[in-house]
Amino acid sequence: MTSVLIAGGGPAGLAAAIALAERKVPVKVVDPSGAATATRGELIAHGGAQIMQRLGLGHVLTDAVLIRDVVSHWGAAGLQSHGSHPGLGLHGWGLDRSALAKAMIGRAEQLGVTLHTGRITKSQHTQAGWTATTETPAGRETWHADYVIDATGRPAHIARRHAATVFHGPALVAVLWQMGSAQDTTMRAEATPEGWWYKVPHKTGGTVGFVTDAATAKRITAAPSVFLSQAQDSLSLISLKGISSRPWSMDCRSALLDQTSGTGWLAIGDAAAAFDPITSQGLFNALSAGFFAGNAAADALSGDTDAPRVYDALLAQTVDRTYATTHLQYAALPFDTPFWRHHARAGMEKKEIRPIHA
Ligand SMILES: Cc1cc2nc3c(=O)[nH]c(=O)nc-3n(C[C@H](O)[C@H](O)[C@H](O)COP(=O)(O)OP(=O)(O)OC[C@H]3O[C@@H](n4cnc5c(N)ncnc54)[C@H](O)[C@@H]3O)c2cc1C
Fold this sequence. Notes:
The protein has about 350 residues and is of the alpha+beta class. The protein contains ten helices and 23 strands. It has a domain at about 5-65 and about 95-165 and about 255-325: FAD/NAD(P)-binding domain. About 35% of the residues lie in helices and about 30% in strands. It has a seven-stranded mixed β-sheet with strand order 6-5-15-16-17-14-18. The protein has a six-stranded mixed β-sheet with strand order 8-2-1-12-21-20. The chain has a four-stranded antiparallel β-sheet with strand order 22-19-13-23, with no helix packed on it. Helix 1 runs parallel beside helix 4 (about 95-110) and helix 6 (about 215-220) packs across helix 7. Mean pLDDT is about 90; it is low at about 350-358. Flavin-adenine dinucleotide binds next to helix 1, strand 2, strand 3, strand 9 and strand 14.
């Protein structure tokens, strides 16, 4: 029986696994953390409800924080309330990513998906199919499959080794803190000269992030308490009280593959196209692209070789629409500083990273 190996057990990989398992295609997911994730708050926009329901994950939204208002203070552009979607009284949901991961693992396993702990370090495609190697502390394992889905997030580990090239937007790093205290149900964002803050509430607290350039992020993580005490003075919307954890940082620049499928493989979620968090598009894209790509892979394995091209076209539309507006938030120039000028000018100016050949 034909089978699919999914590299990466984030929202995209698990959504694809659920779609494939529903089609009775044997599927394995390999992820270094066994698909579990630490607590982190993210907003899923109201449009995400349908795909969550379709994936059998509606209960995750019931347990999430309803976000009815998003308020931002954007420097020279002033204070803005973004209201809620007309007629819905709702902006979206504040989700805890660890709760989403737990629910997705449960749903996938219920459908017969097997999850394995390991990082794919090598992959090879021949006429006989795929062979991939994972490394774990316990040793090396070899996997065989007819089709591979790259859901490894921004590294796009498989696609880049099989001729795809990744283009990046300007460097952008998020420094994140977890807050344990109870939060209000408003999502907040605030611009400062060196970047922008956001605060998203979720059931077990809230997550605060500061999105900035790489050098500033490095300076913050080297001396976080000094930075926090100075930062609070310049903020009017976001309170940093209640931060007790040490921060961690994440690459969050835009990224895009020049090719999102090839012979015997597809790339999904952030591996295929990663968006600046200012768009709040990542989760919706990961879940919906995962679902459609899982179905496209199932179709391709049953002989419909055009199915991955339809998936590519769908993704290209999402990418075009999102990138067309992302830079506008920066072009509003809340502050006339190097950070804002650089991002306003750069837009989706792309830097080519050469493909890696295994
Ligand atoms: C700071 C920040 C804030 C964000 N806020 C929001 C928000 O509010 N709303 C929103 O919609 N989106 C948000 N996003 C975007 C969202 O987090 C991503 O779009 C989403 O996680 C993409 O899911 P994914 O499954 O494609 O990738 P990931 O979640 O990155 O998962 C990839 C998985 O692949 C695994 N992996 C990596 N390499 C290998 C390998 N070689 N072999 C096997 N497995 C591997 C990783 O361990 C990981 O588990 C934010 C992103 C950042 C960085």
